[in-house]
Amino acid sequence: MTAVHTTDAAVPTNSSAPRRAAKGGAPRRRGSAFDRLLPYLLLAPALIAILWLVGWPVLSLLVTSFRKLNLRELTRGEVVWVGLDNYVEILGDPGFWLIAVRTIVFTAVVVGVSVLAGLLIALLMRQISPVVRIVLQIAMLLAWAMPLLAATTVYQWIFDQQYGILNKTLVKLGFDSFAGYGWFSTGTSTLAVIGLLIVWQAIPFLAFSLYAGAIGIPRDQYEAASIDGATAWQTFRSVTWPELRPLLLMLTFLSMLWDFKVFAQIWAFRKGGPDGASTTLPVYQYLEGISKSHFGVAAAVSVVMMALLGLLTIQYLRRLIKQEGTL
After folding, report:
1. 190, 219, 244, 285: least buried by Cβ within 10 Å?
2. Is 123 helix (H, G, I), strand (E, B) or coil?
3. What 3-state DSSP class applies to 9?
4. In angstroms, what CA-CA distances link 54 with 47, 150, 173, 295?
5. Residues near 57 by Cβ (< 8 Å), separated by ≥ 6?
6. Contact (CB, 8 A) for 172 and 154
7. 81 - beta bridge partners?
8. What is the pTM of this model?
9. Residue-level pLDDT at 243
10. Least-confidence region, from 34-38, 234-238, 323-327
């Protein structure tokens, strides 16, 4: 009697099974279409809100810049398209270019002085005693918390031609030429006073931000520099500056955006005077849009300002990407 030998191993019906097993794992399960769309669905409400709050006003401003929209068209609801006439009007005005250059120079000077003063105060707070540091921080917080118009009024009284405490103090110190000196008689001196006010208001934020970055630098690096015999300037250049440079770049960029759009201080002092010598682009935009009711021209000025800020933003992003690539 012959015996029949059989095996219990089943023959696989799918030839790809051994191939998947050989690769060392179970087959990956692909997610459904809903799973792939879920992150975008969750972000959709925030994206729609941003487009509505930011995108729609920008689009409306851009459309208005191509219209003739004076008080007559506004009250009658008329839509009069003028193409690029508003841009031709402002770009062809020599006064506009003078105001634009003045705005850029004013912004650059104010930002430079603000950032430098904030950096020096931040480094100073690292060296002084805790009691003096707390007093200095409280003083900066009070300056930062002071309302804008209140601070503007105080500065107007300080620099007043007849009753200002600055002129009286300078005269008592022996500078008799400052008796009755008019700080607001020229556009340059007016912008200098306004710039001093803006710097005074900006220093607390910059100093606190840079101080927070400075105290985050490990002390081991300073100890190593001291052991190597580095001077104070060499320590700042090799230790402090590389650590604070990214933060300083961001604060400089933000300060440029804020100071370029300054309006309240300039308008509260002399409304762009004397004789328009302290007028900047935000004040020029207000004069065209509100005082003269040339809303189409004012919209064109706003678009030009946005273009200038856009170029500034592009330069900042290029520097930021370049800096990230070197890390």
Report:
1. 219
2. helix
3. coil
4. 10, 31, 53, 20
5. none
6. no
7. 67
8. 0.80
9. 86
10. 323-327
Tell me the helix, strand and coil percentages in the chain, rounded to 5.
Answer: 75, 0, 25
Which residue carries 């015996």 as its tokens? Answer: 3
Contact predicate 247/210, CB 8 Å: yes
Phi, psi of 208 (to 5 degrees): -65, -40
At 327 the pLDDT is: 57
Question: How many whole angstroms separate alpha carbon 258 and alpha carbon 312?
Answer: 12
- The structure tokens 């985050």 sit at 216
Q: pLDDT tens-digit profile of 177-222?
A: 888 888 888 889 999 999 999 999 999 999 999 999 988 888 888 8
Are the CB atoms for 248 and 115 separated by under 8 Å?
Answer: yes
Q: Is there a contact between 118 and 207 (Cβ–Cβ < 8 Å)?
A: yes
CB 119 within 8 A of CB 101: no
The 8 Å CB, 24+ separation contacts for 155-158 are 155/193, 155/196, 155/197, 155/269, 156/269
**For residue 179, what are the CA distances in angstroms to 45, 51, 162?**
62, 56, 8
Kindly list the distances between the CA atom of residue 15 and the CA atoms of 19, 22, 289, in Å, as whole numbers in the listed order: 7, 12, 77
Q: Following CA atoms 155, 156, 158, 164 in sequence, which dihedral angle do they give, to the nearest 10 degrees?
A: 180
* Stretch 285-296: mean pLDDT: 88
- The mean pLDDT of the chain is 84
Sorted by sequence, the CB contacts under 8 Å of residue 236 that are 6+ apart come out as 123
